[in-house]
Amino acid sequence: MLCYCVMETNLYCISDSEEFQPVVPVVKAEPLKNQWADEDVEEDDVKESWEEENLGLSFQVVDDMLDFTQSAEQLGKPAASDLAKGNLTAPVIFALQSEPELREIIDSEFSDTDSLAAAIELVHRSGGIRRAHELAREKGDLAIQNLQCLPRSDFRSALEKMVEYNLEGIE
């Protein structure tokens, strides 16, 4: 379960582990309140608009996918670097549901020379990237839907365009 609180001028998300995590992207509550002061938007409306962190999740899942679909040159880092470090990103989590061999490769910490390439192939073959794409789209659509509680403004329009721009990177 996720809930939100405002501390100082930052909006934070509190997860089940009771850790305070800045909402991604970090939403500065005071500037938002100032932006909407003439439009009678309450702080609760700001929190509601980021419910379940749809915007942040959409961005994160797109980033997870790019690790498998872009070259090292495009990424500015080695492709599949998250997987190589053992990070379980969205495409990997989906792939693990249908590819038990992937768990063995990850658990071996890629001890065989070709194991990273094999793991990448399993992620592609399993549909993990396709399912991550669907999740990113779903969360992006929900983020835009959440933003509808805010008054029409250049700010809201910019946030909506930011979500769409992010999703264009995976279309």
From TrEMBL:
Cofactors demanded by this protein: Mg(2+)
Keywords attached to this entry: Isoprene biosynthesis, Magnesium, Metal-binding, Transferase
InterPro entries reported in the protein's UniProt record: Isoprenoid_synthase_dom_sf (IPR008949), Polyprenyl_synt (IPR000092), Polyprenyl_synt_CS (IPR033749)
One GO term (biological process): isoprenoid biosynthetic process
Species, as recorded: Zea mays
Protein's recorded name: Uncharacterized protein
Any single Gene Ontology cellular-component annotation: chloroplast
GO molecular function: metal ion binding; prenyltransferase activity
Similarity section: Belongs to the FPP/GGPP synthase family.
Pfam families: polyprenyl_synt
GTP-binding in keyword set: no
